[in-house]
Amino acid sequence: YSLSKGKGNKVSAEKVAKITTVNGPSDEVYPTVYTGKVVRPLRSLDPQQAEYQGLIEITEEGTKRGEVYPFAIISLANKTDCLQKGEAIKFQLCTVALTGQKLAYDATPLQRGTVDCVKDQFGFINYEVGDGKKLFFRVNEVLDGVELQPGDEVAFSVILNQCTGKCSACNVFRVSEGVRPVAAPRPDRLVHRLKSITLDDASAPKLVVLRQPKGRDNTKGFTAERKIRQAGVID
Questions:
Q1: Nearest to 148 by CA among 114, 181, 107, 171
Q2: What per-residue confidence (pLDDT) applies to 25?
Q3: Has domain 111-176 been given CATH number 2.40.50.140?
Q4: pLDDT tens digits for range 40-93
Q5: For a disulfide at 156, which of 10, 93, 169, 205, Cβ 3.0-4.6 Å?
């Protein structure tokens, strides 16, 4: 390529010609698919950023959890995707033969939706798939052990069960918390009533026994001897 200066005295490349292919047949691509999040976007999204490459951190449980790998435009499965900071993605790793650098490969943003409900060990996400508008997920598929609540925004991958033919969500990652319901305040009449109640025994209302319990023959109850009866026999 050749360099030229345009408006604002910025240097740009012209007449760019490809010399070698990256992520080509000579690059070693590892089969393992990881779940991670973008910790630094590409410079194309943040012109103030000094580094050109972005960074992806592995978030799923395992020996590589917390490891960070660079990515570039060539790392994207769809070159038009604009990966934002904090966005959940799935990706593979590859070693570039030309430089020996380990780079993210085939990076794809995860699907997004909101949690509809959570019941015991499973829940549902508002996401249109197949004939339904709810996507099933298991609690053990939620990353970082987060307890999801209805309304939380989550990112996830969709997998198809070959036996049942139904889809479900895996690698569920909470992107943001939903609005939590706020308990309604007590009515003013109840608040005033509670304030007027005192726990002082002297001023508390008292109950006075007016008469002792008596039977129809003016005798105390539970004095008559009970007869032993057989089931189904009427005297």
A1: 114
A2: 45
A3: yes
A4: 988 887 788 888 899 999 988 888 889 999 999 888 887 767 787 888 888 999
A5: 169
**175: buried, middle or exposed (CB in 10 Å: 19+, 13-18, 0-12)?**
middle
* Check whether domain 17-109 has CATH 3.50.30.10, yes or no: no
pLDDT, tens digit (0-9, with 9 covering 90-100), for 123-164: 999 987 656 678 899 999 888 888 999 999 998 877 777 788
Give the model's pLDDT for residue 183. Answer: 72
Pairing of strands 11-14, 34-40: unpaired
Q: Which DSSP category does 79 fall into?
A: T
Specify the DSSP class assigned to residue 61. S
For the record, the structure tokens of 17 come out as: 């010609």
Any idea what the Cα angle at residue 99 is, between residues 94 and 103, rounded to 5°?
30
Distance of alpha carbon 24 from alpha carbon 101, whole angstroms: 14
Domain locations in the chain as residue ranges: 17-109, 111-176
The stretches of 97-220 forming alpha helices (DSSP H) are 188-196
Instruction: Return the pLDDT at 223.
Output: 65
State the DSSP code for 142: B
